[in-house]
Amino acid sequence: MGPTTFLIFTSVLKIVAIVFLVILPMVSYAVYAERRVSALIQDRLGPNRVGPAGLLQPIADAAKFLLKEDLTPAHVNKFYYWLAPCLVMVPAITTIAVVPFGSTLFGVPMVIADINVGVLFVFAIASLGVYGIVIAGWASNSKYPFLGGVRSSSQMISYELSLGLAVIPIFLLTANLRLTEVVQYQIDHGWMIAPFAGDWLNPVKWLLAIPLWISFIVFAIAIFAETNRLPFDLPEAETELVGGYHTEYSSMKFALFFLGEYAAMITGSAIIVTLFLGGWHFPGIPDGSHGWIFGLINIAVFFAKVAALLFVFIWVRFTLPRFRYDQLMRLGWVFFFEIALVNIFLMAGIISLSNA
Amino acid sequence: MALAVPRPKLSWSERLYLPAIVSGMAITFKHFRNMLLGRTKVTVQYPEQKLDAQMPDYYRGAPALVRDEDGRVRCVACQLCEFICPPRAIKIEPGEIPSSDRFAKVEKFPREFDIDMIRCIFCGMCEEVCPEQAIFLRKDYAITGLTRAEMVHNKEKLLEIGGVMHGVVLKWNEKK
Known about the structure:
The complex is a heterodimer of chains A (about 350) and B (about 180).
Chain A: H1 3-41, H2 57-67, H3 78-94, E1 104-105, E2 108-109, H4 118-126, H5 129-139, H6 143-174, H7 179-189, H8 203-226, H9 238-241, H10 251-276, H11 292-317, H12 325-355
Helix pairs in contact in A: 1-10, 1-11, 3-5, 3-10, 5-6, 6-8, 6-12, 8-10, 8-12, 10-11
Chain B: H1 12-16, H2 18-36, E1 63-65, H3 80-84, E2 90-96, E3 108-116, H4 125-129, E4 135-137, E5 152-153, H5 155-162
Antiparallel strand pairs in B: 1-4, 2-3, 3-5
């Protein structure tokens, strides 16, 4: 087997494994987790009947969605109406391609495409996600979806600014956009949220933690806004917009919007983990070059971190009420944008201080 | 004069908004943890776990006809319940008691007594209006059926639910 054939073979294997064996089951179980966790937070039990502890509920849900009547209203623009659900799902899953989800397994790096523009690719693809929602809102030819689409477009564009600016301090530090290098930097110098790890007595490292924590918080909140999760779920806003951009959708097309939201949550969490929480690294666990079992453990660590972040997503959703639209815009443009901007200079100052 | 409502002065930490978020999340996490550890017990797992024993005596379930200690159907087919019933769920067909019968002086008995349980709203007015204490709302609440006809309780069914009741209405005893 030549090196090119080997590369294609392993890439296809990784794509199939990561999408069909990890991301899609994770999406459906994120829905289940959302229902159970929200229930427990509200002193209820949640779905606990299908299978042990309700664990087969996602399968029952999927069967229900597939068997439901797929209604296309007469007043919609058919082409865009059909296109929109795909445009929501595809960018959400594509983003995972550049995220290193493990070290190596049998010498094969556990990242589908280790490209040197890394995080730029993530932002480029993630920003395509807005088209699905806008087109869904527009093609539905109905007032509530339209309002949802309009809200989502301005919200996502506003928060992409702070999203992009918030990560710049990290790349000032790592001087590399490649996500595998970012993870490697964190293994060598401590996670981005704990840059002082391993070098506990160095005051510059402690100083470094301040802008990185600001970055982390701004980035995490912007990810919430990008994935349309509460408290920023104004495009959906069940109580105001009847469900927003997917009001006119039924059956599997509705399910695709639903799954797209959760897939975006998972990729968002994966990016937060990669950039700030050390990726697949866990103190004391060696990488995959020490044996395939460690490679598997690295992958498990990565997805455990993602799952923990997903819990935070759900936890926040069932704690905070929705923002008003002007508050949302004010928060994005007046606070986070400025904070992220000033943060870059803060970081640059600290780096020049440490080099001097 | 317009009343000036004083706006609450927010402290610095309140305006920062983040401490409130953190405390809110602590509260929800406490609920989550207590539910997860089984410290909060609020949900009744219905078909396996029922609260029938804790039901109060005034519970208004399915209406039912009762027999007295002599085995006579207490109902005298006066049709007051039929007239009072707000959703008109009750249908009574009265019959005459033959003079040879021990209870001939009661004169009437219900030949048919149907309560449509699809219509019944469990208001209890039939029980309240009954001069004979013949109809009672029992604690049966799980009334199901696969057809509309099945949901109509006829006389036999109603008596089966009701059973025997020793009441205070004694005016039909032979002594009187």
